[in-house]
Prior knowledge:
The chain has 311 residues and is of the alpha/beta class.
Amino acid sequence: xxxxxxxxxxxxxxxxxxxxxxxxxxxxxxxxxxxxxxxxxxxxxxxxxxxxxxxxxxxxxxxxxxxxxxxxxxxxxxxxxxxxxxxxxxxxxxxxxxxxxxxxxxxxxxxxxxxxxxxxxxxxxxxxxxxxxxxxxxxxxxxxxxxxxxxxxxxxxxxxxxxxxxxxxxxxxxxxxxxxxxxxxxxxxxxxxxxxxxxxxxxxxxxxxxxxxxxxxxxxxxxxxxxxxxxxxxxxxxxxxxxxxxxxxxxxxxxxxxxxxxxxxxxxxxxxxxxxxxxxxxxxxxxxxxxxxxxxxxxxxxxxxxxxxxx
Length: 311
Ligand code: NCD
């Protein structure tokens, strides 16, 4: 594998291989010194044109644990503000020896565009509302870890909220269905794409209908920064119908798990603190982010050797 830009491109086989490799990375992360020399001499550049906390920090942590060098590009203090183009920025960082770019950008398709300007590997860390493949890997790994099942056959996964603007939803729908899950989307019609008839999902506009039958309840953030017009009449109305509340959590199956990719909008889609939810995996999603991104970097840049030694 040279690039990781979408779940589609990765395919079911690639998905399963990366999830398996993540198990080894999680084992490294349990060690007193969680560092191996696997990517010594390799350089990973993060190119984030959109805000990020978890994704950027977990990629950088992952690179460091594999002994790669890291280059962090900060758009607000870069020559982009002097008018430098994306193409020239990528060429400059390539000249400095970057072996991989971790890219986040508001425009759909940027990871495919950048590939034409560099010989480095490209990892999509989110392109507009299109794809966020490493988040889908994190979520599949986290569900596997919690349920002790490799495949999700017969599992009912409900994704709730702002589907329209969510790259996480698009990547997760593909990954969850590749592993055998049944996916239901719950949102008001205004927060769904105009046509989802070709997506492998069911749609329901009423969260309360699907609460008792969900094995996984996956909450999404309302992405106000991507909204050009009012997609919800009022926040209060949206919260009333689509937020997770104490009352709704009480109606979940005993074994049902709750997830959220973060960042959370407390008081909007989350009216309950995750620590008050018995089976919340929200902290596991963050913790597993490092192991998953180590697996991705190792797969793209590693030679296959060096996983066992000391850094
Ligand atoms: C998501 C993203 O940026 O797409 N966050 C993340 O990567 N953990 C989801 C979001 O911003 O709502």
